[in-house]
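Hey,

Quick one before I head out. I ran the complex with magnesium ion overnight. Inputs first:
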Amino acid sequence: MTTSHITVPQGGQKIVPGQAIPDNPIIPFIEGDGIGIDITPVMIKVVDAAVSKAYNNSKKIHWMEIYAGEKSTRVYGGDVWLPEETMAALKDYVVSIKGPMTTPVGGGIRSLNVALRQELDLYVCLRPVRYFTGVPSPLKRPDLTDMVIFRENTEDIYAGIEWQAETDGAKKLINFLQTEMGVKKIRFPETSGIGIKPVSKQGTERLVRKAIQYAIDNDRKSVTIVHKGNIMKFTEGGFRDWAYDLAKNEFGAQLVDGGPWCKFTNPKTGKDVIVKDAIADAFLQQILLRPAEYDVIATCNLNGDYISDALAAQVGGIGIAPGANLSDSVAMFEATHGTAPKYAGLDKVNPGSLILSAEMMLRHMGWTEAADLIISSMEKAIGDKVVTYDFARLMDGATEVSCSAFGDAMIERM
Ligand SMILES: NC(=O)C1=CN([C@@H]2O[C@H](COP(=O)(O)OP(=O)(O)OC[C@H]3O[C@@H](n4cnc5c(N)ncnc54)[C@H](OP(=O)(O)O)[C@@H]3O)[C@@H](O)[C@H]2O)C=CC1
Ligand SMILES: O=C(O)CCC(=O)C(=O)O
Ligand SMILES: [Mg+2]
């Protein structure tokens, strides 16, 4: 493979796990497809301004562009969507941020986003959902929505283990299921595409452990296991049972009123933490009607994907929904939304989601003063009704600004 399209920035230092974050860390970034070209430079400009202001120029991120997706095919040529040196850099530099990447529907390449999460074993997809005062929302009380989603990021049907209808692979698997496994319920075997949904005890436990620990560390009142275990008994149902077992075995949770809900005392606050569960369809209506009853959410991959966008809509849309993909050693931050192709290159969309993902990154690095500046300046810009099109179309008296002008509006308010 051709290598060395990556230029390591002069004067920057690598973040080394277990050591203090240097004042001049090298942070790899992937620009992203579609609106990546609009939002990524704005994110970098806003973060640089916040860091410079917060630390009086004594700290500075050294950004290192690495490539994946469509830009990678232009830089590396032909079919190179995810170069080896990109994977190596993401592992080696430990903390990174990425724009969205396109995944074609039906045929074509499989999701590069999913490939990154699987290959780096970024098993937690962490997506906090909170309300910013002034953001237009379809709810009467959007401020009651304050949840943190822990979406399992490496397993489930989302992983794409599937065979196209009428191919040798689909025929072979369907034949195996019918002849060796006694399966009689495939309604149209000749024309079925077929997929496999792996959900494991280990995968569930490591995700739920992080969710419960987050509730402890952040004084949250409950963890809700969201699943469809009534129908998919051994995958989603397994997820629910393993999650409850973990709460009991590792955190000492005791049954509430005979169960299945349980609770334990937060060792840091002395308060109760409730561990409960909800079936995914009912959960989706309850978060709209009774959002205050939900707090930390732990769920399988596909449920987490749906819930992320639904919850984001409650607090103003995916234009400001941030996220992180985490393993025990690597953290890769990214927006919840996709490449929104119809807006690509128009300098129009909301850069808030990627900027708030960078805010999570700064907090992860312990650069809380810069993170706080990002939050406060975004609150001020929205409070002044200086917003991008997505908010402006729902707000009375708003000043609609471009993607880059919204970044500038934040910087002016730091
Ligand atoms: N992690 C990743 O990289 C992700 C990648 N994708 C990929 O992105 C591609 C497009 O997916 P699609 O389903 O259209 O979903 P998108 O999230 O890209 O866009 C859907 C709609 O959400 C709104 N939106 C998205 N981003 C913003 C923003 N920054 N500011 C304001 N509004 C925004 C727009 O709404 P409106 O039209 O109302 O203005 C847009 O049309 C697909 O290939 C998909 O696979 C999808 C999700 C995540
Ligand atoms: O990989 C993709 O294209 C979609 C990913 C997605 O929707 C998500 O991560 O929320
Ligand atoms: Mg999604």
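Residues 162-195 form one domain.

Talk tomorrow,
K.
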